[in-house]
Each structure stands twice: as structure tokens, then as C-alpha cells.
């Protein structure tokens, strides 16, 4: 039924030219691990057999290191070794009947739905009228009256089969023409045999005809296919929404002062961009001139505008609200954070989890197995009583009822719904297989700085400082991007005049120095700012006037919102929670005490974290690792499943299976709850599909099912699987309720030190 991606046949018009060589190279991107990847639209992919055929063919192409098909997007990601010419993947796909394109045909998606709706309407009208005529025959019409009703049914069914069934006939013909099978071949054969046999019965004045079965089968199949199309389209609405937020271009400032509007695809790192108020930022960049407020809700989930000034990093997709900005592009559009989010959403269904692999293997074997089963059934009944009419009727019923549509839908439909549900909760899924691993996790490991905490030091005890001295320190701190300077500047006292320094200089690793009214002010390390007063080994931050300490500053890191509740929920629903950090022991113990974490390890190098994870895995633990920094990337890759915040370093986000976009750590237990529900629904769907086949197929082989009943049973099984998957979209996650966001200004009293 709807195991086939709807409308794939409509979009599958062969192209006169195929993307090769330079086109593939320009459309590809570096993965950073010695490989390049290109995503191609393959609109003819529409079932598990198609996925198997495409991936197998591509892996046989010399130079290809990997290929993965996404059924919902009907795209294939092909990888090859960097530095080599792109392999001839387009020709390989065209040779097996799947001509690829570089871009998805959005207009074709609308045409697909229109064709499906028209086909459903025609098939439904024909099925209703043929069914009314069949009721008359079932009620006892005989002789010429029965023949007349059969002829009218034949005349109604024929144009309906031609118009509504062309989707299946086109697909089946294309498959057979290229020497392969797909799920539409047995459907086309079953519908055609049912009509042909009914026409024979009509010509020979037989008592039974199955025009109602052939037309009703198409009607039910098309309903399921349309529902599947709408479901997948809605699930991908978030992806398309993100894509549409990407600006089409930007004004580029030339070295000679000229301005040139360029498409976003041609913007390269180092180019200077002018972004007016009200425009979205096209690529990841850094502010080099201007101040403004940005709407970062797309990236962080926070609705509060974020101020930016020269030196601030900005991400693609954020909206410039209040003033013009001059930016320097840091990444091309294809490598921006927004593009990464789109790719993660599209990859959510592409993972080959254990259940998915099982379902796809069965679906790929479907066509030959079902044909063999139907043929053996025909031979068996011919051997039993020699009635070829009954034998072929039973074979048709077997051909129809054995369609593994429910099995083909069992896993991908749940993954699509789960990915959408996670996105609504601010979590991006990089790999559908990660959902299965997340549900299996039985231990949690957190990094500290930037994960359990926000990694942004805050000034504490500011109310005890003299306002005049705080204003002087804030004026000095405003000239630096150091995190401690930013914390002092953010806490600047209100209602106090801002001092103006004659000169300001920053000494890296030491602090800031400025002259005002003939006095030398220093803000920084005590041993540098006031060397005669600082105690031996003192390493705090002070404000000194001509070498005399005038104020001391103390800082604390802030816990992530929802950190306490998230840790408590994970400890209750997953297993033991551990903190592994490279920070100093006092800072780690303070955070652990605030969050109720008993198992803490401090001053760890990246290799030490990997070793701890390996030891936990050797002990039978399946660890969920949550971290953000460069030093966490090896651990994120070594864990059973991993998550990182959107603020993580690029390498950390790339290594993680999930990325959460909001500050709150509540995303972790919510994602775990959704993953567990998705796992249960997948197992339920697989069980439903298996039970259906175990019960229905033997009954059909024994001759107790007519083609019409077979069509209804097969359609009902697929609708049951779809309905079960939709339960995930409705109910709350099991851990969502207990996790409430904590106050944003939740700080710790431990000193802030380096990681």
C-alpha cells in the first residue's frame, strides 16, 4: 500500500543530461575526514527494494566509499575519497532506472499530490458504482441481467484502472524494463489478473467476476499512498521551513568600496557583507562593524533579542532586527549552521538501525517471494482439484494479501514522526539509528563546562562593590572580549557616569591597562595589576590604581536551565549519572554538589574520558555522553550515543548523534523519552505486520479469502501501522513533565577556572 514513497514515478522523468564530473564536485562538500559527499535527488526510489538496488549499485562503483538513501526525501548521499575525481554515480544510477538530479523538484511534489487525489477520486467513484452493481449480482441476479451488470462493471472499471492505476503500471514497467523488481510489479499483476479473469468470466457468461476487487484494491492502495505522502510531507515541513529561511543572497562589499548583490551560493569565507535591519544573515560570519540586536530564536530557541557588536560571531538564519551590520563571512552557505540543521533533519530517517535493516531486507525480498508463493499456490490448487479458475483466483488473493506494506512502513514512519517531535522540542537528529541507541542507554556521562553549565562566567557579589569603582572596571572591561571582562561589563552599574580613558591597552594573559587623569588603572590578574600587594600565588581578578588594589572581583559559572531537574530525571529513568571534566577539582565538586551527582572525575584529558567510557562499555554499560567542546569530540564519538548543545564547537556537533538548540538541559530527558516511545511503537508495528502475515497468508493460500477481502485486509494492516505511529505525535514524552526550566541566573560559588 503506502510502503512506496508516493509519486516517485511522477517525478522520475529521465533527464537528457546527468550531473557528472565538475557539477558533482561543485555540489559536493567536504566531510572533514578525508571524504567528500554529494546529495542527489532520486525521485524514482519508492520502496525497500529500490533502496537496496540503489545502495548496492553505488557501492559497486569504483571510488565510492558509502551510499545511503533517505526514503522520505528521495535523496541519496554518496561519499568518495577527497582528492579524487567524482565517481560516475549518475551514470550508474541511470543504468538501473534511477536517473538522479542535483535538485529536488518542489513543483513536482505538488503535482504528485494532485495526481494522487485525482486518482483516488476516480478509483473511489468507480469502486462505489461497481460495488452497487455487484450487490445486485450477489442478491441473485442471473442470466442476461447478471451479464449486463458484469459488462457495465467492466466498462466502468477499465478507464478507472487505466487512469488511477497508471502510477503502479508506470513504476512496474520501469522496473521490469531495467531487469529488476519492486513492490509495484505484483500489485500491477494482481490488478490486471483480477480484471482479465473477470472479463473472461463475463465473456463466458460465468457466475463470478471480480471487477469490484480490482477497482477497490486500487482505491485502498491509493488512499494509503496519499496518506503516506501527506504524512511525510508534513514531517518534512520543518526542513522546508528551515530551507526557506536561508536568504537567497546578500550585498557583498568590494575592496574598492563597491557593492554587489551575490547569490548565497557564491559567498565565500573572507567576503565582507552588508546586512540591513530586517534581513536574515546568509552565512556564519563575524561582526566587523556596527551594533544591532538579533532574533536568534531559530538557533537557540530563545525569543529575547541578543545584542551584537564588533567581534561577535553570528550564525546563518538569525534575523537582524535594529541596525545595519558589516560582517566577514567565515563559512560558505553549504557549511553554515543553518545548512547543518537542514542536513540533520533530512538525515533523521536515513539511519540504518537494527529494526530498519530487518524491515528493508524483508521488503527487498518481497517481490520474488510473493510471486513464488502465488505461483506455488496456483500449482498446489491445480494439483488438488484441477480447477484452474479456482486456482488462479486463490493465487490472485495471495498476490494481493501478501504485500508487505505494513512491514515497509513500520520503522520509517515512526522515525519520521519522532524526528518531527524532537524538532518541536528543540532537538536535531543526525542519524535515525541514534534513536534506537538512545532508547538503549543505561548510563549518562556529562561534561561540565558548556554542558552542565553555560560556560559563561558571571560576576557575583557586584552589589558589594563601590559603584564608581565598578563603573571604572566596566569601562576598561568593555575593551576586551575575554569572558571575565565580558562578565564585568555585563554587570555594569546603572545610573553611574561611564569614565572615559585616554588610552587603553590589553596585555594578553594579564589584563587591561588604561590611563585617566594621570592615573594608571589596571584590571586583571592580581600579581600583574598590584605586584607589591598580591599574595604569593594569588591569581584572582582585581582593579588596581597605580599598583594599589581598589576592588576584587569574584566569578561563578551558571548552571544550564533545567540542569538539576534533567539530572534527577535521567538518574531515575536511565541509570547512574557521571561527570567527566578537564576542570579543576573544586569547580567540579561544586557543580556536582549543586546537581546531586556523586560520581565525579576532574582534570581529565580527552584520552582519559575515552578510557573511562571504554571501561564503562566493558562493564556492560551503554553510555549516553553529553558534551560540547573540542576535548569532548573523541568521547562523543566513542559513546554508545551522544548529544551536544548547539553552542558546541563544530567538531563536537559533528561527532554527536543529537544536537539540542536551546539553553535548557531538559532537552536530554525529553529526547530520551521520545526515543523510548518510538522504540516501543516500532516494535509494536513490526509485531502487527508479522501477525498480519502469519494469519492472513495461510488463510489466503487455503482459499478462504476472495481478492476483494484480500485488498481490504492488506489496506487495513497498513492503515493500522500508520495510525499507531501517529500516537507518537500526540502524547507527551514520559520525561517531559517532570523537567521544568530552572532560573537562568542560577550560579555556583566555586571559582571559574580553565577547562
TrEMBL record:
A GO BP entry: copper ion homeostasis
Any one GO molecular-function label of the UniProt entry: ATP binding
Protein name, entry field: Cu2+-exporting ATPase
Extent of Polar residues compositional bias: 746-755
Residue stretches of biased makeup (Low complexity): 735-745
Compartments where found: Cell membrane
Keyword list, A-Z: ATP-binding, Cell membrane, Ion transport, Magnesium, Membrane, Metal-binding, Nucleotide-binding, Phosphoprotein, Translocase, Transmembrane, Transmembrane helix, Transport
Signal peptide as annotated in the record: none
Organism: Prosthecomicrobium pneumaticum
Residues annotated as transmembrane: 116-136, 148-169, 181-200, 206-224, 364-384, 396-418, 686-702
